[in-house]
């Protein structure tokens, strides 16, 4: 148990809480301590009944069962692997900036699903994980990565390979597609547009996050560092209609 505890404490701070929540909340639903219906994002209940906890619980919850267990474990692995790499790589020593990226992506995902069919309810775990994976892949786009059966390709293709992989084992690509689009939006506004195209910087980490999660030096590094031009620009700016998107479940289907 001490080895397991040491491994858990070695996970970067923000990823550690996200990873733990993504185990605890599904376990609560699996044990029946809370009805799973109360853990999904159901737009009608969220908007009209002010059940404001739903976007949060829907981010951590996944209905684990015989037909979904493998998909859950695969995406839990992606969460641990790529969130850790991003937090200890491009965002090393800058937990406030990493938290801001997660919050920005999460808000975009919630807005996307909340504007969907009110009769459906949604899970947000996979879209948020995919948005983080997409950002990591773009910051390390020329890195050669390995996937199943020894296949090797550039990291920039990884989000789309996983999209296809999840389609094979899960039967849908909407969650993955939403995650990729949100990750692209963050990457474009934070890196591509201001740094490569010389445009205005639309995204800036709020000061209260710096007070809550101050920058620090040191830590583990080496997992995915942005290109030099991106690092310099990022360091300079520190301190300071209805759509039917998303794979949903109609009430009563479960």
TrEMBL record:
<dbReference type="GO" id="GO:0005789">
    <property type="term" value="C:endoplasmic reticulum membrane"/>
</dbReference>
<comment type="similarity">
    <text>Belongs to the derlin family.</text>
</comment>
<keyword id="KW-1133">Transmembrane helix</keyword>
<dbReference type="GO" id="GO:0010498">
    <property type="term" value="P:proteasomal protein catabolic process"/>
</dbReference>
<dbReference type="InterPro" id="IPR035952">
    <property type="entry name" value="Rhomboid-like_sf"/>
</dbReference>
<feature type="transmembrane region" description="Helical">
    <location>
        <begin position="98"/>
        <end position="114"/>
    </location>
</feature>
<comment type="function">
    <text>Functional component of endoplasmic reticulum-associated degradation (ERAD) for misfolded lumenal proteins. May act by forming a channel that allows the retrotranslocation of misfolded proteins into the cytosol where they are ubiquitinated and degraded by the proteasome.</text>
</comment>
<dbReference type="Pfam" id="PF04511">
    <property type="entry name" value="DER1"/>
</dbReference>
<keyword id="KW-0812">Transmembrane</keyword>
<feature type="transmembrane region" description="Helical">
    <location>
        <begin position="121"/>
        <end position="137"/>
    </location>
</feature>
<feature type="transmembrane region" description="Helical">
    <location>
        <begin position="53"/>
        <end position="78"/>
    </location>
</feature>
<keyword id="KW-0472">Membrane</keyword>
<feature type="transmembrane region" description="Helical">
    <location>
        <begin position="157"/>
        <end position="189"/>
    </location>
</feature>
<dbReference type="GO" id="GO:0033554">
    <property type="term" value="P:cellular response to stress"/>
</dbReference>
<feature type="region of interest" description="Disordered">
    <location>
        <begin position="233"/>
        <end position="254"/>
    </location>
</feature>
<keyword id="KW-0256">Endoplasmic reticulum</keyword>
<dbReference type="InterPro" id="IPR007599">
    <property type="entry name" value="DER1"/>
</dbReference>
<protein>
    <recommendedName>
        <fullName>Derlin</fullName>
    </recommendedName>
</protein>
<feature type="transmembrane region" description="Helical">
    <location>
        <begin position="17"/>
        <end position="41"/>
    </location>
</feature>
